[in-house]
Structure formats: C-alpha cells, structure tokens
C-alpha cells in the first residue's frame, strides 16, 4: 500500500512514516502543499495524510484542487487545528476523516484503514487489474508481464520499476523520483542503481522489438510511451 504524507514538520512526517511502515505501508513525504499536489496528481497512492497549515499551499486548497481535478484518493486530515469549524472545513474541502494533533499513530493508521474500507466498494469498479502500453501488458493480480505473445520474466525490483513507469505512462520521471518511489530511498549518488535497473528492464522489454517503449530523456530521466 502506498501512502502520501504531506507534512512540513520533519519530525511529525518521520513519525507518521515510521508508524505506517511498521504496518506494512510504503510512504512518500511531501514537505509542502505544492509538492503534495504534484505527487498526488502524477503518482498513484492508496491514501493521503495531509496537514492543513502547509507552506506554498495549505491543506484546504490542496484538497479542493485534488477533488476538482478528479482525484478521489482517500485522504485523512491531520492538523493542530482542532476546532469544530476547522474539522468541518477540512471535511467539506474533500477530506474523508480528520484527526487533531497531538495524536496516536495507532489511531491514525486505524482511521486510514477505515476510510479505505469505506471507499473500497465505490473504488472497486474503477480499479484496473492490468496496465497496458502498446502491446505491453502487466497483470497486477497474477504479477505477469507480456509483450505481444512473449512472456517476460522480471525480478521484483524490475517489476516495481515497470509498474511505476506504466502508472506514469507518458510522463517523464526523474532518477530521484524513481529512487524514492521504487527503492524508497533518497537519490544522492545512487542514481547509477536506477540506470542499471532501467538498462536491464529495457533489454527485457524492448530488445528485438520494432517499437521501443522505454526512452531516456537526457538531462531529465525516463519516460515509457509509444513514440511510433
């Protein structure tokens, strides 16, 4: 399960991240509202936890923009503003639940799980079980990848990288974002790890194929798309 944490206080963000990781989640942290909006708009998450008092864009404006743009990812508002008026504003903006600080991480995890269960019947009809690009297909249930009639065997990290590229089909993803979303690790000097994995994946996906799907965008990163 993928969680987006939008929180400008580093200690709180790390506390939430560690709590959800212990519950088996993978977490991405956005330190301000604009970054949170960008992440939520371009990457698939199962749930969002967001503060209200954020730099660059507050949580209320963030939720309104997401809902207006058609993003229905369940969101729990986590804020020091505990008044009834603040709670109403957060829920009316598009929050699915509201928890005031200070808080118990166990309660936050439970609330996120509750909004996920509540959203499941509605979302089930819209959840894709396959990802496709041209004749490349990933079966998310069976964890199988094919290109045309050819079955492709991938290592776990290669599979995760391909899934990330497919979910962001047509968008350029940087090495840094790949490191964060696939390896859950800050890029630093380790971008050569990304390059090596992309090279192996490209060899399995595009070798001997007339139409290449994985492309390098020099100076930026990678994009998966049919450019034919």
What does this structure look like?
The chain has 228 residues and is α/β, with parallel strands linked by helices. The protein folds into two domains: 2-124, Response regulator (Rossmann fold, 3-Layer(aba) Sandwich), CATH 3.40.50; 130-224, Orthogonal Bundle (Arc Repressor Mutant, subunit A), CATH 1.10.10. The chain has helices at residues 10-22, 33-42, 59-68, 84-93, 105-124, 156-167, 175-182, 191-206; strands spanning 2-6, 26-30, 47-50, 75-79, 97-100, 130-133, 136-139, 144-147, 150-152, 173-174, 214-217, 221-224. It has a five-stranded parallel β-sheet, with helices on both faces. A four-stranded antiparallel β-sheet has the order 6-7-8-9, with helices on one face. Strands 10-12-11 form a three-stranded antiparallel β-sheet. Strand 6 and strand 7 form a beta hairpin. Helix 2 packs parallel to helix 3 (59-68) and helix 6 packs across helix 8 (191-206). The longest helix has 20 residues, at 105-124. The protein is elongated, with a radius of gyration of 19 Å. The mean pLDDT is 86.
């Amino acid at each position: 399960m993928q969680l987006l944490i939008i929180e400008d206080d580093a200690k709180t963000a790390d506390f939430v991240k560690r709590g959800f990781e212990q519950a088996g989640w993978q977490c991405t942290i956005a330190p301000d509202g604009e970054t949170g909006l960008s992440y939520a708009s371009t990457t698939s998450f199962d749930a969002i936890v967001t503060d209200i008092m954020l730099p660059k864009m507050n949580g209320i404006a963030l939720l309104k923009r997401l809902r207006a743009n058609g993003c229905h990812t369940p969101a729990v508002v986590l804020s020091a503003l505990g008044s009834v008026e603040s709670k109403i504003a957060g829920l009316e903006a598009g929050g699915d639940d509201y928890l005031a600080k200070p808080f118990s991480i166990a309660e936050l995890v439970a609330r996120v799980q509750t909004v996920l269960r509540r959203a499941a019947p509605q979302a089930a009809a819209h959840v894709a079980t396959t990802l496709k690009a041209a004749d490349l297909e990933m079966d998310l249930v069976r964890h199988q990848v094919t290109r045309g009639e050819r079955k492709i065997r991938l290592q776990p990290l290669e599979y995760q990288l391909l899934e990330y590229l497919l979910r962001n089909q047509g968008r350029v993803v940087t090495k840094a974002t790949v490191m964060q979303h696939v390896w859950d690790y800050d890029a630093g000097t380790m971008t050569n790890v990304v390059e090596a994995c992309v090279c192996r994946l490209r060899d399995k996906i595009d070798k001997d194929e007339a139409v290449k799907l994985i492309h390098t965008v020099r100076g930026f990163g990678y994009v998966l798309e049919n450019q034919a």
